[in-house]
Structure formats: structure tokens, C-alpha cells
Amino acid sequence: MSNATWHARIECGKEVGAGFLVSARRVLTCAHVVRCSDAAEVTVSFPGRRELGGVRASVAVHGGWRGGVADPGDLAVLELERDVPLAPAAFAPPGAEHGGELVAYGFPKGYDEGMLAAYRALPGPLISGEWVQLEALTAHGQPLAAGFSGAAVTRPDGSVVGMVSAVAGSREVRVGRMLPTEIMARYWSGLGELVPTAGHAADDRRRLYTLVRRAQEEARAGLDPDRLYVDAVGPFGPPLPPGGFPSLERAAGYVQWEVPEAEAVTRFADRLEELLRGDETPARPEAAWSPIVVEIEHSGAGADQVTVEVSAYRDGHRRPVGARRLPRSGVRAYVQERIDEAFTQLSPDAEELLTFVLPREWLNEPVSRWECSPDDPTPLGCAYPLVVADRARHRSGRLRHQLAKKWQKLDAGTTSLHRVECGTRERPLSLRKRLREHDAGLTAYGAPPTAVREHFEVAVNVPVPVLLWPRTGCPGAAHAGPCPGGTFLDELAESVTGVPPADLPRLVLTLRETAEAADEPERHWAHGLQLLWDDPRCFPEPTACLHSPVA
């Protein structure tokens, strides 16, 4: 402790408190210590190096504290008017405050040179999710009194585990509170680079925050922190917090402190570095979609009975709307009602995506032609982006994992359309090899799945994230005259060129509207266009059955 010259004494008007140096020019303290900084000068001195004198400072970062004893965010970062030639404080990993003596260096009245107080951290949950309670080791000695606010709380080796934020009101009460470092980092992301965290090497932390600062200095537009977070944690990581992230700094800090997988920090930094190099334009974040999911499955109670479940996703969480066992003849009316109800679960600015999760043999069902309601004959596929998904694939952890990796590659660049011609003579195993070798993202068929069943199942199982086909058309190899399947593939290839795969549901909506508005809709090449579009990142929680199919 005698060599810890980074301990600071802070004066602001009549307020005296403590602080600690974290860089050549920055000092941490409590926001309430400098509450009068708008009207009074802030002066910082270092008792261990009195020859430095008082250094004027300004509040560079405020944690948001509003003035109440129990208000959160009681943290301020002071910027000194000049660098000081002192080694800054070193930090211990989060959680290191438990199990031993802790020491705080403060400045109670009458002790301008400072006093030490010995305490311990009580085990248990954080008080209001914010503070660790401190309790005196003995009934004698220096209590945490006025003048200790903002003091670093250190272990015997001098490493910092937190900051005193509340002190006792009298000498008889020997308790206090501290902000642990992981909570302090909520209010100042600069701590992320300074505090060691499990699984993150110091070089990795420095690289991450160097890249974040570079993005800020260059004022790079289009760097979406929500998108970077989703790329870093993957489809099964913690969902975006409500409202997303206001800045790259906050997103980086959340990945470091809140995501248990250490590799997420590396992925965040790698992706940010790619974007800063200008290797690519950041794609639209998947979080833009707010899916409404209609899942239909055999009920097990009879050939004509099915189970229908309808859900809506908001802020990355699934909100069940309804589930029922029905005869197939009653499905359409039930779905119309529940879809209408599902819209009430979406945020006002949500971009809805209707997703029909169907058994494989029903993937060609004309769900995009179903009417919006009994009073509105507009086809669903002409009113909203609408896609289908294979139920077995939607529920497979293995295939969801593979699809998520493929989508990361699709987001990173362009992709070509792989054609499966009507009447193809390519062997299914040869097609499988072709799709795997090219890591296919988009595959289109010139005929409906019933005409090319084995070839269709190859792409579903590889798995290819996006499949397109005409619901009607060439029944197989034997047909006379011009091939409508070839026309379909030619027109489709021209339409999807340059369109990011993440935006294909919007494109298909436009194509369906165009076909519907044609003089002869049924003769338009896109009239029966079906889109299987499967991005598991849009559905972060695995689908769960809401209704027992045999109950």
C-alpha cells in the first residue's frame, strides 16, 4: 500500500472524497463527490506524491446518478488537465473481493493525508443488483466515514476490486457499500480494457477496445452494434438486451462481461476489424425481422387431425399466441385469427416475417395464397414477407448450428444461385457433392418438390439456407414444348442477382405482388413462387410444443 501512489484525494466545493488513478490522465471517483462540478472547481491531489500539488480536473464521464442515496450509477470519470507521472491502479478479476481482508484509503475530516479502513465483503447477491455490502473486520479502528466515498477497495496485494460508494452515518455503524468492478463497467466501458476477465487475455481486451476507439475516431457510419453482437454470440448466445445497444462500446462491454463464451470477444473484434478495413458493407441485422411463426404438425390423433401453434417473436423472445388440435379443413380460419392476434405482440416499428413451419411433405402448400381474413381477400404472401421452413430442420440442433454458420458466410459476401433444372439427370449424390463443395447458400428448382423429391431433400439436408421453386409447372422430365421451369429459373436468377439473402423475403413479396397485378396472374412466372428461407438466428429460443398432440 505504501507504494500505491495512485490513491487520490478529491475536492469539489465543500465536498471531499477519494479516487484512484486509472491512466495518466483519468481518475475514478463517485458521482456524488463531484456533484457540484458545474459550479465549483474539481481538484485532485495524490498524498503519496505531494510535490505534484493539486491538479484541476473536469468530469469526462458521468454514470447517470441522479442524487438519491439508493440511485444507481454513482460513478464519475475525471479528466486531469495534465498527465501525471504515476503508475495507475491495477485491477483484480471480478469476484476477487470475497474471502479476505479488503482495505480502503480515504480522507475523513481532519486527516488530509488519508486513513486506512479494513473491511470484508459479505457473500451473497448484490444489493439491488448494484452494490456489495462491506462490513468492518473489527469493532475498533477507522470506519468508512465521509471522505471515503470514491476510494478504491483493494486486496492485500493492492489490486482493486471495487470502489466505496456509500459510507456509514456514524462511528457506531461499521458497514458500507461498494461498486464492484463489473458493475462500474456498466457505467464506463473503459474499464473493460483494464479489468482482467475470465478467458480473455490482456492482448485480446486491448485489441477489442483499440478497434472500438478507432471506429469512434473515424466516425464510421453503418457499424451496427446490435449486428456485431449477434455475429459474436451466435444464434444460441444470450439474446439482445431490450432496446439493443446505443454504442459499439456498450456492445463490446456486454460481450466481455455478460457472455460466458470467451471466444465471443475474439469474434466481435474480428468482425469489427473486417468492417473497418472496408472488406464489406455491413449487412442488415437479422434483428430487423420480427417473426410470426405458424407451426403445423401431424397431431397423432388421426390422419385428418393436425396441431397448429402460433407464436410471435419480440426482442429475441418467443411469445406464444395460441395452440390447438384441428381438422385440416379448419386450419386456415384458425391461422387467420391467430396471425391477427400475433401482430399485437410485435413492437410498433417491427418488420414482420410470416414463417410457416411445415412437415416436409407439406412444404409445397400454397400458404402464401391464403387470404388475410374473411373480410380481406388479399393473399398473405402479397401482404407480408412470407416464407416456409422445414419442421424437422427447424427443430434439429445439429442443422440449426450448421445453418447459423452458413448465414454468417452469406452475410459476409455475395452468393450465387445453384440451379436444379426441370428433368435434371444429375444424380442426387452428385448434387449433394456440388452443393457441399460450393457451400451453396441459394438453390432454385425448375419443378415443384413432388417432381424432384430426391434432389429436393438433398438441399434440405445439406443444409442449404434458401430454396426457391414454383409450386406448379413441369411435372417431370417428360413434357412437350417450351419448359416453364427453365423460364422460371432464368427470371429468378435475374431477379435475385445482387440481392442480399437476408432481404429475399422482401424481394419475393414484391415478385408476388407483381404477379398478382399482371393481366394474367396465373401465367406470370412468379405466380406460384415458394420460398424456403431458414435463418435460425431469427429464432434464438428452440421451438417448444405448446400443446400435447395426443391430449
Spatial sequence of strands, sheet with the most strands: 1-2-3-6-5-4
Largest sheet: 6 strands, antiparallel, barrel
Radius of gyration: 31 Å
SSE-based structural type:
alpha+beta
Based on DSSP secondary structure assignment, what is the total number of beta strands?
23
- Tell the overall outline: elongated
Question: How far apart, in Å, are the first and last alpha carbons?
Answer: 69 Å
- Kindly report the average pLDDT value: 87
The percent range for helix content is: 25-40%
% residues in beta strands: 25-35%
> What is the count of DSSP helices, taking H or I runs of 4+ residues?
14
**Uncertain ranges:** 280-287, 542-551
